[in-house]
UniProtKB/TrEMBL annotation:
It is an enzyme of class 1 (oxidoreductase). Its cofactor is thiamine diphosphate. It catalyses: N(6)-[(R)-lipoyl]-L-lysyl-[protein] + 2-oxoglutarate + H(+) = N(6)-[(R)-S(8)-succinyldihydrolipoyl]-L-lysyl-[protein] + CO2. GO terms for biological process: glycolytic process; tricarboxylic acid cycle. Homodimer. Part of the 2-oxoglutarate dehydrogenase (OGDH) complex composed of E1 (2-oxoglutarate dehydrogenase), E2 (dihydrolipoamide succinyltransferase) and E3 (dihydrolipoamide dehydrogenase); the complex contains multiple copies of the three enzymatic components (E1, E2 and E3). Coiled coil: none annotated. It comes from Neptunomonas concharum. InterPro entries: 2-oxogl_dehyd_N, 2oxoglutarate_DH_E1, DH_E1, KGD_C_sf, ODO-1/KGD_C, THDP-binding, Transketolase-like_Pyr-bd. This is 2-oxoglutarate dehydrogenase E1 component. Keywords: Glycolysis, Oxidoreductase, Thiamine pyrophosphate. Its EC number is 1.2.4.2. Belongs to the alpha-ketoglutarate dehydrogenase family.
Length: 943
């Protein structure tokens, strides 16, 4: 220790002993901001010894803390020797021992025996060498204080301290947690690891349970391998301890009060999990292997399917659900989070105790897929937190054919991304199933204690290759040479129990025989399975099943109720200071509510939400700027200009109203949209909306759109009523802020899978949003929502328009034209309608009719036919769009329009008008934009 530090210690003797935590907090403060501590402490802290140059800077307070602890226990407390050095050689070594202890806590995992194959290349860790700390074997019998170690004694010989440190931090459990800033969390983890040296003794009953689970995991793979040789199953062979982990997790979570556990995982080990954890009947799985059709839909391969069941735990019945998952690896993770949040909201659980999210990852995907980072980032945000997620990384140490660390990642571990949210990471050797069970218990308890994410890095291997038809030795010769010699996890553990006298060899064989017999008999193999489950644990979808597509839905609202809701929306607490421009918007809305002014888009949209809430349906809206609205039209969240407090009128309509949730999201599209999809699939009675900042921002979430939103119903029979609001319109803002890529959604339309609409009036968005939740049909809704129309003087509606009627899929000609005099028909959708209407008025073209198609899919052929029925003298028909002709609605919709026109008059030919075909969505030069807009409008009106 430096002289100044010792002097400070003696000057401030009142700080250690009972006030030791104050000293530690002082140093924690120094690490975050040196200027926040007194100068005399700051100067001495600057000169403190470091554990090692490679250590991160958030941990060197440990030697100080532990030295203070040692001094507080030292009864002599004699004055330091002259010159200010530590008073004796023993005290010098004591400090070094404390530094060594800290080094093992920080870096012990780097030499831990976590690879069952023994092939993992490890770099030298000098901090863990005795000599690095100026200690040697000559000090082995010397007794030292243990400082803050939870080893059950205050002092011990160095050789015992070292042996216990190695057992705790360097055997089959490698605990990585010292990157956590919160001292309480670190001490909690230490209090769980160190007393049992990371290896608590399991009871005979628990050991037999572990063997039974390993037998099931291995037994299923062997059975499938022999019965369906060569068939893809993405088996769990080499990672069978995952079944032990999941079983432990569910049972412990249930014991602690959880009512539901939702699991997301990719295909590796999924079939094993469905049979051995969820209790799926093996006979059903065998039917799937034999390709028998069970549902009248397109379906999906067996290792993408979801499942749910109920199991019994010590804490009662628990519902467990497996999320459906495509082969996009990590994309199911945020879907799980959304489903969990919905379940928690349904239970009124804002802490996260009753529903536990579990995401199972592959090691290469965990470090390689950006959505993992996005999902971690949402974990503690108000809109998306779920009380902590338990992550299990099934670490096969290879991704398809890539295994070299320098090719697969730039970090030491595949799990290092989890450090961004200071999640503890427990690396564990999959061939030590007792250790796997222990770290799983630890992970569940940590999540329950701190409501934060935690990671189990289950080091194992992949015995068969990427799939059962793959030959892996061609690309990983050394790894698979070792795997061929490697005994299975079950073999190793069974032999261990036989050696311990827990079971006999005959009993071990009987375990295998019983499991195989159950499979052959087509029996459920999960002993905790509840065969008559409590239906209250399920989400009730019955009211939403079996409804065919229909355009008809009365979405009108009593006029008096609309006025009352409108007036309430304009109220704010007394003394609440609203920003000047926002106050003008509110004042205008007061006039709109009174019927003294026509309604704009923002008011109609707000009334839609208010009326939905008044009818008992929750509303949830998220997106990057949804509180205000990207284009300043919504102002659903008001901000006090004096205090920065917020007020949401939609949350204060009445005391009995359901939840109104509105949050600005963090800057993510993929994870956030996936979250909202998961939420919507679990809360069918809610209006769930994701709004893009600009429509083309949804490009970053295309995987969610392709794999879930447009195809989920037909692949997995998973209904979803999610609404996407995508600002769309060509207003000269360039190629990145014009198009929501309407053509992409229309290309994905089939089998009435989604709805794609382009509303052009406030009344239309009012009725469209209400239809989405009032009607029991649950289909995703994609809205090409406006930008400039939000304040367009012609884009207005009356209160009566909202009170009466419903959404109009087609809006016919609004002017009183003579139908027989109409020679040209212009079909269009979206903002371009107003440009067309105004140009026609300028030119006084009374022989041109303009019809808006407000819903492009499912296409309203009957409504379009009705709108043009009286135009018996048509000579030409055009479809006009703002988008380039290789984009927009033209290619995917023209056949619907042609079919209607052919029925009306077979001689009519449909022409398309729009911007020239383009590789980019729009031009970047405003002059070119204006020129193109003029040209397409003129061409549409004049021909």
């Amino acid at each position: 220790m430096q002289e100044g530090v010792m002097e400070l210690l003696w000057k401030n003797a009142h700080l250690y002993g009972g006030n030791l935590s104050y000293v530690e907090q002082l140093y924690e403060t120094y690490l975050l901001d040196p200027n926040a501590v007194p100068q005399e402490w700051r100067e001495e802290f600057d000169r403190l010894p470091k554990v090692g140059e490679s250590l991160s800077q958030d941990v060197p307070h440990s030697p100080v803390r532990e030295h203070f602890l040692y001094l507080s226990k030292n009864q002599k407390r004699s004055q330091p020797a002259a010159g200010g050095s530590v008073s004796s050689e023993h005290e010098k070594k004591q400090v070094r021992v404390l530094r060594m202890i800290n080094a093992y806590r920080v870096r012990g995992h780097q030499i831990a025996n976590i690879d069952p194959l023994g092939l993992m290349e490890r770099e030298d860790v000098p901090d863990l060498d005795l000599r690095f700390h100026e200690l040697s074997e000559a000090d082995f019998d010397t007794t030292f204080q243990l400082g803050s170690l939870f080893f059950g004694a205050e002092e011990a010989p160095l050789k015992d301290i070292l042996a216990d440190l190695k057992k705790t931090y360097c055997t089959t459990v490698g605990a990585e947690y010292m990157h956590i800033v919160d001292t309480q969390e670190k001490r909690w983890i230490q209090s769980r690891l160190e007393p049992v040296r990371s290896h608590p003794e399991a009871s005979v009953e628990k050991k037999k349970m572990i063997l039974e689970r390993l037998t099931a995991a291995e037994g299923l793979e062997k059975y499938l391998g022999s019965r369906y040789a060569g068939a893809k199953r993405f088996g769990l062979e080499g990672g069978e301890s995952m079944i032990v982990s999941l079983n432990t997790l569910i049972q412990r979570a249930g014991k602690q009060g959880a009512k539901e556990v939702v699991i997301g995982m990719a295909h590796r080990g999924r079939l094993n999990t469905l049979v051995n954890i969820f209790g799926k009947n093996p006979a059903e799985l065998f039917s799937e292997f034999e390709g028998k059709k069970t549902l009248d839909t397109s379906g999906d391969v067996k290792y993408h399917q979801g499942f749910s069941s109920n199991v019994m735990t010590a804490g009662g019945e628990v519902h467990i659900a497996m999320a459906f998952n495509p082969s996009h690896l990590e994309i199911a993770a945020p879907v799980v989070e959304g489903s969990v949040r919905a379940r928690q909201d349904r239970r009124g659980d804002d802490v996260g105790t009753t529903v536990v999210p579990v995401n199972i990852h592959g090691d290469q995907a965990f470090c390689g897929q950006g959505v993992v980072m996005e999902t971690f980032q949402m974990s503690q945000t108000r809109a998306y937190k779920t009380g902590g997620t338990i992550h299990i990384v099934v670490n096969n140490q290879v991704g398809f054919t890539t295994s070299k660390k320098e090719d697969s990642r730039s970090t030491e571990y595949s799990t290092d991304v989890a450090k961004m949210i200071q999640a503890p990471i427990f690396h564990v050797n999959g061939d030590d199933p007792e250790a796997v069970r222990f770290v799983t218990q630890l992970a569940v308890d940590y999540r329950n204690e701190f409501k934060k994410d935690v990671v189990i890095d289950l080091f194992c291997y992949r015995r068969r290759g990427h799939n059962e038809a793959d030959e892996p030795s061609g690309t990983q010769p050394l790894m698979y040479a070792q795997i061929k010699k490697q005994k299975t996890t079950r073999e190793l553990y069974a032999q261990k129990l036989i050696d311990e006298g827990v079971i006999t060899a005959e009993e071990s064989k009987e375990y295998e025989k019983e499991y195989r017999q159950a499979l052959e008999n087509g029996q459920h193999v999960v002993k905790s399975l509840v065969h008559e489950p409590n239906a209250e644990l399920f989400v009730d979808w019955k009211p939403y099943l079996g409804h065919e597509w229909s355009f008809d839905c009365d979405t009108g609202v009593d006029l008096k109720l609309l006025q009352e809701l409108g007036s309430t929306l304009c109220e704010s607490p007394e003394g609440f200071v609203v920003q000047r421009q926002v106050q003008k918007i509110i004042d205008d809305r007061k006039r709109m509510a009174a019927g003294a002014m026509e309604l704009n888009w923002g008011m109609a949209e707000s009334l839609a939400y208010a009326s939905i809430l008044a009818q008992g349906h929750p509303v949830r809206i998220t997106g990057q700027d949804v509180g205000r609205g990207t284009f300043s039209h919504r102002h659903a969240v008001l901000h006090d200009q004096k205090t920065a407090d917020t007020y949401v009128p939609l949350q204060n309509l009445s005391e009995e109203q359901p939840a109104m949730t509105i949050y600005d999201s963090f800057l993510s599209e993929e994870a956030v949209l996936a979250f909202e999809y998961g939420y919507a699939t679990t809360m069918p009675n809610s209006l769930v909306i994701w709004e893009a900042q600009f429509g083309d921002f949804a490009n970053g979430a295309q995987v969610v759109i392709d794999q879930f939103i447009t195809s989920g119903e037909h692949k997995w029979q998973r209904l979803c009523g999610l609404t996407m609001l995508l600002p769309h319109g060509f207003e000269g803002q360039g190629p990145e802020h014009s198009s929501a890529r309407l053509e992409r959604y229309l290309q994905l339309c089939a089998e009435h899978n989604i709805q794609v609409c382009t509303p052009t009036t406030p009344a239309q968005i009012f009725h469209l949003l209400r239809r989405q939740v009032i009607r029991p049909l649950r289909k995703p809704l994609v809205v090409m929502s406006p930008k400039s129309l939000l304040r367009h003087k012609q884009a207005v509606s009356s209160l009566e328009d909202l009170a009466e009627g419903s959404f109009q899929p087609v809006i016919g000609e609004v002017d009183a034209l003579d139908p027989k005099g109409v020679k040209r028909l212009v079909l269009c959708g979206g903002k371009v309608y107003y440009d067309l209407y105004n140009r026609r008025a300028e030119l006084e073209k009374e022989d041109v009719a303009i019809v808006r198609i407000e819903q492009l899919y499912p296409f309203p052929e009957t409504y379009l036919a009705d709108a043009i029925r009286d135009y018996t003298n048509l000579e030409s028909v055009v479809w006009c769009q703002e988008e380039p002709m290789n984009q927009g609605a033209w290619y995917c919709t023209q056949h619907h329009m042609r079919h209607v026109l052919h029925q009306h008059n077979p001689a009519l030919n449909l022409q398309g008008v729009g911007r020239p075909a383009s590789a980019a969505p729009a031009v970047g030069y405003i002059s070119v934009h204006v020129e193109q807009q003029e040209q397409l409008v003129n061409e549409a009106i004049n021909g």
